[in-house]
Amino acid sequence: MKRLTVIFSLILMIVSVNAKTLIVYYSFSNNIHRVVTELQTQIQADILRIEPQEKGLDYAANNYAIGSALISDIRQNPNSESSYPAIDPVNVNLSEYDMIIVAAPLWWSNMAAPLQTFLFRYGSQMENKNIAMIVSSASSGISGVVGDAKRLIPNGNFLEPNLWIRSSQVSNSRNLISTWLQSIDYDNITSTTLIDKTTDISDIDIVVNVDEINIIGEFDSVSIYNIEGNKLLETNDNIIKTTNIIHGIYIAYFHKNGYQISKKFQIVAK
Questions:
Q1: What is the rounded distance in angstroms from the CA atom of residue 201 to the CA atom of residue 256?
Q2: How much is the average pLDDT of 26-48?
Q3: Which residues pair with 266 in a beta bridge?
Q4: Residue 217 CB-density burial (10 A; 0-12 exposed, 13-18 middle, 19+ buried)
Q5: Do the Cβ atoms of 228 and 252 come closer than 8 Å?
Q6: CA 243, CA 195: separation in Å to the nearest integer?
Q7: In CATH, 196-267 is 2.40.50.100
Q8: Residue 202 pLDDT grade (very low, low, confident, very high; cuts 50, 70, 90)
Q9: Domain 20-190 in CATH: superfamily?
Q10: In this structure, are residues 38 and 30 in contact, taking their beta carbons and an 8 Å threshold?
């Protein structure tokens, strides 16, 4: 197979501890969902969306009467599981994560009830983990939502500042999120530099041919992102077909035994 000209360079000549992030969120009006979607373009994280078990409820009807009643039940007896609305089962192993970003809408000065249910059940498993908060609301302050999170995750390491995105700002949240990630020192918190000669992940090479990418070396998985930060695919194969990938510059994140390394490469026009 004819080989094309390839430009690839090592972005990080280091191996770093893979500090995993989980974004857990609930969204009724989809404002938080849109914020989380934007956040995904700026960081690597697993996503867990919480859904209420009872479907089809219009929480906004009658001035959020249903949501208000759910919040009232929690306020009256916050230590009883029966006070929290049922949610769909979740499959998550929190021991895998070092940072958890909790993204929540504000309901009547408190965190949306379905997300409170999740934290009531799992908050104790977040002990000593870094916790970051994103809150969406129309106008009210977010202190009640943050207070709920600290009550439900009593031993979490809460990072400051919290990110408050008003409903009117959701469509332009990119810069707000970027500035916030810098303010909580996200990159440094989630990546501890460590040179480790016991892993050979740094020996990986990328060769781009006419119809495929050949990866030389051993790894557990690789994620391919475009230069805008959008994830295209994740695989553990050493050969990746490029039929549906347009020409341009891409970044490959390789994972092996809890370590990560990234490389940049280019696919040229065919």
A1: 7
A2: 92
A3: 249
A4: middle
A5: no
A6: 36
A7: no
A8: low
A9: Flavodoxin domain (3.40.50.360)
A10: no
Residue range 3-36, pLDDT digits in tens = 433 433 333 333 444 478 999 999 998 999 999 9
Place of tokens 């994103």: 134
Residue 43 sits at φ, ψ, to 5 deg, of -140, 160
pTM exceeding the 0.85 threshold for the entire prediction? no
Q: Cα–Cα distance between 22 and 36 in angstroms, integer? A: 11
User: 22 near 101, Cβ under 8 Å?
Assistant: yes
Q: What is the DSSP letter of 93?
A: -
Tokens of 31: 């404002």
Q: Copy the structure tokens of residue 170.
A: 């959701």
Domain positions in the chain are 20-190, 196-267
Coil, strand or helix at 231: strand
| Packed helices 31-40 and 174-183: angle between N→C axes, nearest 10 degrees | 60
Q: Tell me which residue has tokens 């230069």.
A: 227
Per residue in 159-198, pLDDT (tens digit) is 999 999 998 899 889 999 999 999 999 988 886 433 343 4
Strands (E), 11-50: 16-18, 21-25, 46-49
